[in-house]
Amino acid sequence: MIHLTIDNKPIEVPEGRTLLEACREHDIHIPTLCYHPALEPYGACRLCMVELSQPGRTPRLVASCVYPCEEGAVVKTKSEIVVRSRRMTTELLLASAYNTPEIQALAEELGVKEVRFKVDKENACVLCGLCVRACQEIVGVSAISVIERGIAKKVAAPFEVQSSRCIGCGTCVLICPTGAFQFESVAGFQYASPQESAHRLGYYHLGSELDLRPNFVKDITGLLRTPSEEE
User: Fold this and answer.
1) Domain check: are 8 and 61 in the same one?
2) In 7-89, where do the E strands start and end?
3) Whose CA, among 32, 96, 119, 182, lies 20 to 30 Å from 58?
């Protein structure tokens, strides 16, 4: 077992736990966008930053979703530098995804009331990488990826043409935290009834985070409900 302190609270966790996992196991809230328990940690959104202090080292910010718990570590999840970092990240996200409810809720939680940055075009995609990793790690197809560099970076199929590997399962739509992916964006998406365009399949979250690991979901159709079944 590893012993550490989080927000002045002594914590004991098994080896191999990340700081984020330790916090969640002990009901310590840390905001995230790119984390999902069914996927390997990615550390893209930087919202989960915490302040880490260790003997003989200067306190520093680390991404809790990818940083392992270490013996004797002292972690602060709500220090001034942590809150300032999260607010800056949220402000940058809000600059392009200003109409996204999830980002608006995050901004309200962190007290971000104004945005000092401007972008030419609204974009709900925050490049969290959840859709790309789910397609690769859960579905096992890798039909989409992150392409381009810098401000041109985006999620698309290779060469931005419809991927022949896409099976139309909709996992990318389901796991997207901001709704940037729509069913119409999925290459293999089809209406449930070709004659009735309004009658289409819908995916539903089971709780705040759906466990999509293969040993949990045996059949993807188990995640589908039609509007008639919903009534």
Assistant:
1) yes
2) 9-13, 49-53, 60-63, 74-76
3) 32
pLDDT band at 185 (very low <50, low <70, confident <90, very high): low
Whether 86 and 27 map to the same domain: the answer is yes
C-alpha span between 37 and 35 (Å, rounded): 7
Pick the most confident of 78-87, 111-120, 154-163. 78-87
Let me know whether 102 and 80 are in one domain. yes
Structural domain total, the chain: 2
- pTM, whole model, 2 decimals? 0.77
Tell me how crowded residue 5 is: count the other CB atoms within 10 A of its CB.
14
- The C-alpha atoms of residue 57 and residue 38 are separated, in whole angstroms, by 33
- The domain in which residue 73 lies consists of 1-122
Whether the Cβ atoms of residue 92 and residue 42 lie closer than 8 Å to each other: no
89 and 177 part of one domain: no
